[in-house]
Automatic annotation (TrEMBL):
InterPro entries to which the protein is assigned, alphabetical: Sulf_transp_TsuA/YedE (IPR007272)
Major subcellular site: membrane
Similarity-based family: Belongs to the TsuA/YedE (TC 9.B.102) family.
Organism: Thermoanaerobacter kivui
Subcellular location: Cell inner membrane
Protein name (database record): Putative transporter component
Length: 338
């Protein structure tokens, strides 16, 4: 099957799971600080747990090569922090604003447009000088058991290949730690009409594994898809040529379609627009910060947190830490400082 059709189908499945689970990493991180609500956070941890085992198993069976995102410390520190602040202003993470377009949120569409255009400009467009400032990837030649994708012998850094040990060892330790947290961290009570934190987390993890098996080079992502869709806003502008859609671009289309269908069936679709016009400026600014952050850091909450942490990628660990710090700073500034 054409990879673009595969991306579309995986995206539809992804969109359905996002919509029925009400999964948003901005809300998951924000709620832990603001209201001590860990419901969505536990859903995310379950998904990461499932993917940690699933990715390693697929690599061990020879179905994929593990391909963690490149480590550029300054990029992940600054990019993660900007992204964390931006998703609070935008009212959703990269995946959150994407699936909410399918639910009829006008602000999500505005945030997504500014996110996609800005990320495109940073990745090979007018703002590409930002990436030139941030440095080059730090790699290793360690490739324990040959499980990692290599380019000219260079492998992107994870805890396992940094220590030059079988990635199963680190994956099992990480999975056990996640399992302990999931079991013993008391879940905030919440009434749900769709997927609960367990079924939603497992479903999200399974979709991530399916995406890796389909795309081969990486599991789920959002930023790369929006960049693909908005490539004509960069130096590649050519109105005489069709947009060269790829797996990631079609995945974004699929997410919106899947969320739309799921929302219609659940009778949760309706157009929603804010009454205060200032909200549009706020979400646009949020989208810009997210675009700069994800464009420079090499990924967003899906690329780094959901898909990157199961690799135990050093880049994704750094991004996650600073995205949380940026999120919490903006939460404090907007909601708590007074």
């Amino acid at each position: 099957m054409d990879p673009r059709w595969q991306g579309l189908l995986v995206g539809i499945l992804f969109g359905i799971v996002l919509q029925r689970g009400r999964i948003c990493f901005n809300s998951a991180i924000r709620d832990v600080k603001m209201t001590k609500d860990n419901y969505l956070m536990k859903m995310a941890l379950v998904a990461i747990l499932v993917e940690t085992i699933g990715f390693q198993l697929a690599a061990q069976l020879g179905w994929i090569k593990l391909n963690p995102l490149p480590l550029i410390p300054l990029a992940q520190i600054i990019g993660g922090f900007l992204f964390g602040m931006g998703m609070v202003l935008a009212g959703g993470c990269a995946s959150g604003i994407t699936y909410r377009i399918g639910e009829g949120y006008v602000t999500a569409f505005v945030a997504a447009v500014f996110f996609g255009v800005t990320a495109s400009a940073v990745r090979g467009g007018p703002l590409s000088f930002i990436n030139n400032w941030l440095g080059k990837p730090i790699t290793t030649t360690n490739n324990p058991n040959g499980f990692y994708a290599a380019k000219d012998g260079a492998v992107n850094l994870t805890i396992a290949n940094l220590l030059n040990i079988n990635p199963w060892i680190i994956a099992i330790i990480f999975a056990i730690l996640l399992l302990i947290i999931v079991i013993y961290w008391k879940t905030t009570e919440r009434k749900v009409s769709g997927l609960n934190w367990i079924t939603g987390g497992i479903s999200l993890g399974i979709v991530g594994i399916i995406a890796y098996l389909s795309q081969k080079t990486y599991p789920l992502g959002i930023t790369g898809g929006w960049v693909n869709l908005f490539r004509t806003t960069t130096a590649n502008l050519d109105l005489t040529q069709p947009i060269p859609y790829n797996w990631m671009g079609m995945e974004i289309v699929g997410v919106i379609i899947g969320a739309f269908v799921a929302a219609l069936i659940a009778k949760e679709f309706r157009f929603r627009a804010p009454k205060d016009p200032k909200t549009f400026a706020q979400v646009a600014l949020g989208g810009i910060l997210m675009g700069i952050g994800a464009g420079s850091a090499g990924g967003c909450n899906i690329g780094h947190i959901l898909s990157g942490l199961p690799h135990l990628a050093i880049s994704s660990i750094i991004f996650t830490i600073f995205a949380v710090l940026g999120n919490w700073l903006m939460v404090w500034y907007l909601f708590e400082r007074r």
